[in-house]
Write a structure and sequence with these properties.
The complex is a heterodimer.
Chain A (H helix, E strand, L loop, with lengths): L4 E3 L2 E4 L5 E6 L6 E7 L6 E7 L2 E5 L6 E5 L5 E5 L8 E8 L9 E2 L3 E5 L1
Parallel strand pairs in A: 2-11
Antiparallel strand pairs in A: 1-3, 3-8, 4-5, 4-9, 5-6, 7-8, 9-10, 9-11
Chain B lengths: L2 E3 L4 E5 L4 E3 L2 E3 L6 E6 L5 E7 L5 E3 L5 E5 L4 E6 L8 E8 L6 E3 L3 E6 L1
Parallel strand pairs in B: 2-12
Antiparallel strand pairs in B: 1-4, 3-9, 5-6, 5-10, 7-8, 8-9, 10-11, 10-12
The chains are: A mainly beta, B mainly beta.
């Protein structure tokens, strides 16, 4: 079975631009979460979606938004990019329920902002 | 607020030697605890988890961890390290809402021959 897939794997943007990152969860998983991992740090929680509704949000500005589609895939959007947004963006899925339990991570999308 | 502390930023262990990575957590109730491993340029792979029950949990790749409530610790151990174990290790705890994992800053493990 396919794991969590993310696209693109790498991308370069300039300050002020907008970016959309995509994630497909493991088949049968209804919950998708997004994390930001800055170099040398642990992942930081951005969003959790379950059954297409936002269930949790981390301490990130409104420039960050996300959505989940009927097929449970998800997109993360970041507007007005800043240099500090350069990071590895990780998507994770879990089988379901309000408690995320064990998360299964994709390999991430590495965003570089110049 | 919940938090996770991994006191050791970088550890070097000789191949074949034993390993213990430390993790301390702050949480008001019975925590859900996790250890993940991340190889360079890769996503995170779950090594093991603790939800309840036996405080010594076994994971993949020969790893184990022991939950000690009195010490607020969840240390990761392996009796004999292999060169392929060199990676970044993250301890994590569920937030109280159950919507997210809170990660420590990680410990980088290097294995010397």
């Amino acid at each position: 079975d396919a794991g969590v897939t993310q696209s693109p794997t790498h991308l370069i943007k300039t300050r002020g631009q907008q970016v959309t990152l995509r994630c497909s969860p493991i088949s049968g998983h209804k919950s998708v979460s997004w994390y930001q991992q800055v170099l040398g740090q642990g992942p930081q929680f951005i969003f959790q979606y379950y059954e297409k509704e936002e269930r949790g949000r981390g301490n990130f500005p409104d420039r960050f938004s996300a959505r989940q589609f009927p097929n449970y895939s998800s997109e993360l959007n970041v507007n007005a990019l800043l240099l500090g947004d350069s990071a590895l963006y990780l998507c994770a899925s879990s089988p379901g329920g309000l408690r995320t339990g064990e998360l299964f991570f994709g390999e991430g999308s590495r965003l570089t902002v110049l | 607020a919940q938090s996770v502390t991994q006191p050791d930023i970088h550890i070097t262990v000789s191949e074949g030697a034993s390993l213990e990575l430390r993790c301390n957590y702050s949480y008001g109730a019975t925590p859900y605890l996790f250890w993940y491993v991340q190889s360079p340029g890769q996503g995170l792979q779950l090594l093991l988890k603790y939800f309840s029950g036996d405080t010594l949990v076994q994971g993949i790749k020969g790893f184990e961890a022991e939950f000690k409530r009195s010490q607020s610790s969840f240390n990761l151990r392996k009796p004999s390290v292999h060169w392929s174990d060199a990676a970044e290790y993250f301890c994590a705890v569920h937030n109280q809402a159950g919507t997210a994992l809170i990660f420590g800053k990680g410990t980088t493990l290097s294995v010397s021959s």
